[in-house]
């Protein structure tokens, strides 16, 4: 089979869906992974219709630790050229940790971390052998700060940032690049799904604008990508100030934004 392929998790909505359209428009065939089969099928059809690429869907629940086993064992034997992996699937948990559902927190680790690690480990050997490839990990500005009332979510994003930086260094000279994309508020279903109340629902970037930046910077091989001036200012301050001060600052900002727990 000829042509480059991009694997994108969380491609049924929001940033992942917009990234699917970006990679398809760039000539990549796409493998789209998420739970919602109907939504995935619509994205796949649209990728093929708009850009004439092949699009495959894998409808699976990444919170199940075995969800990717079949797909990953197939990856090692098929002859496709997997050039890009986008670890984007994620969701939020909002509330004081002492009251949150522990099983839901563990599912979050599976979706955001275990699935990303498994897929990355599966695609890297052939990327390295071919001396080309890109891994794009979708993290957050919260990668740089502790976030009261979203503690596990933000810790996952900090993990992704640290992992991406270490991996990027390990891969120097191999032709494989790692990009970690750290958006701030983006207009997707993320906030309503996590029941994060907010005064202004229209604030932040559109998913399309965020995906455009992520796509271009990934192909340029940039390592850390923070889109938007305000997000970059936040990251600058978060890196400058002590963690305890940043936690208090984030709690204050989120209270001003009308988030229910803060
Ligand atoms: N929106 C923001 O403000 C913002 C800011 C910073 C970072 N991010 C990050 O951006 C990424 C994309 O989020 P989004 O904003 O685009 O939100 P979204 O519209 O809710 O999209 C989340 C995607 O993840 C998939 N997903 C969630 N749970 C899953 C599971 N158990 N198994 C498989 N797929 C699952 C969803 O698909 P199904 O429901 O079909 O499974 C969906 O495709 C996330 O990693 C998020 O943390 C978002």
Largest sheet: 7 strands, parallel
Question: Rg from C-alpha positions?
Answer: 18 Å
Q: What oligomeric arrangement do these chains adopt? A: single chain
Number of DSSP E strands: 9
Give the overall silhouette. globular
Q: Helix and strand string, N-terminal first?
A: EHEHEHEHEHEEHEHEHH
Biggest β-sheet: strands ordered side by side in the sheet: 3-2-1-4-5-6-9
How does this model look, in words?
The strands form 2 sheets. Strands 3-2-1-4-5-6-9 form a 7-stranded parallel β-sheet, sandwiched between helices. A two-stranded parallel ribbon has the order 7-8. The chain has one domain (4-256): Rossmann fold, CATH 3.40.50. The protein has 9 helices and 9 strands. The protein is α/β, with parallel strands linked by helices and 262 residues long. β4 (81-87), α4 and β5 form a beta-alpha-beta unit. The protein has helices at 14-25, 37-51, 69-75, 102-130, 151-170, 190-193, 207-220, 229-240, 243-256; strands at residues 4-9, 29-34, 55-59, 81-87, 133-138, 176-181, 186-187, 205-206, 224-225. NADP nicotinamide-adenine-dinucleotide phosphate binds next to α1 and α6.
Provide keyphrases for this structure.
globular, Rossmann fold, 16% strand, 9 helices, alpha/beta, binds NADP nicotinamide-adenine-dinucleotide phosphate, single chain, two-stranded parallel ribbon, 7-stranded parallel β-sheet, 262 residues
Quick structural overview:
With 262 residues, this protein is of the alpha/beta class.
